[in-house]
Amino acid sequence: MAKKIVLSISAAFFVLILWGCKSLQGKREPISRNLVDPGIKNAKQLHKFFMDSNPLADSEQVLRMARTYISEAKTEGINSDCAFAQMCLETGFLRFGGLVTPDMHNYCGLGAIDADHRGECFETEALGIRAHIQHLHAYATGEDVSLVNECIDNRYKWVRPRGKATDVFGLTKTWASDPEYGAKLDSLLSRLEEY
Predict the structure, then answer these.
(1) What is the DSSP letter of 174?
(2) Where are the alpha helices (DSSP H) in 80-179?
(3) Phi and psi of 93, rounded to 5°?
(4) For the stretch 149-179, what's the b/e string if a residue is b when 16 or more beta carbons lie within 10 angstroms of its beta carbon?
């Protein structure tokens, strides 16, 4: 009888442990949609998210970009998760295919309007990411908040009023004319929450 009770308790304990592990797997930490909140995902998580969407991308480049997005965003007080997701949306996970080409190092469609205005060009990947973060800074912060790094975003000064989009939904019809732009970013961030 005592053996049966011990076995029953052991089995119940095992089931509780197994259930606890499974329930933890299903939990996901919510990502803020506010552009000035800190990002919560690390470079490896951003990399995995990206590579699952474009397994043919250069893995080393994606990891390097994830690290740069986190660093630049932290410096300027911008949400790195939102910025990285926006890069994924704007470039089609670095597949490009529109007005902007990879050699332009323009990861957010800065200045891309039409065939005569293909967009801004940056000398390096790191500078392109910095310009992207700076442009988000102009959209998300007021006049009283200055950039930490020297401004390399030629379009920063044209964002009026400053602070007109404090979250990803505010980028709809301001950053992009697409009426679903914020919803698309929100959807990408929901996917990123799984990583």
Answers:
(1) T
(2) 80-91, 125-140
(3) 55, 50
(4) eeeebeebeebeebbebbbbebbbeebbeee
Give all strands (DSSP E) within 21-62, no chain letters.
Answer: none
> What is the distance between the alpha carbons of residues 81 and 192, in angstroms, rounded to a whole number?
8
Say if CB 100 and CB 112 are below 8 A apart: yes
DSSP state of 172: B
Q: Is 20 exposed, middle or buried (0-12, 13-18, 19+ CB in 10 A)?
A: exposed
Least confident window among 16-25, 99-108, 121-130, 148-157: 16-25
Average pLDDT of 91-97? Answer: 95
Inform me whether the pLDDT recorded for 78 exceeds 50. Answer: yes
120, pLDDT greater than 60: yes
By residue count, the chain amounts to: 195
Asked whether residue 77 carries a pLDDT value surpassing 80, the answer given is yes
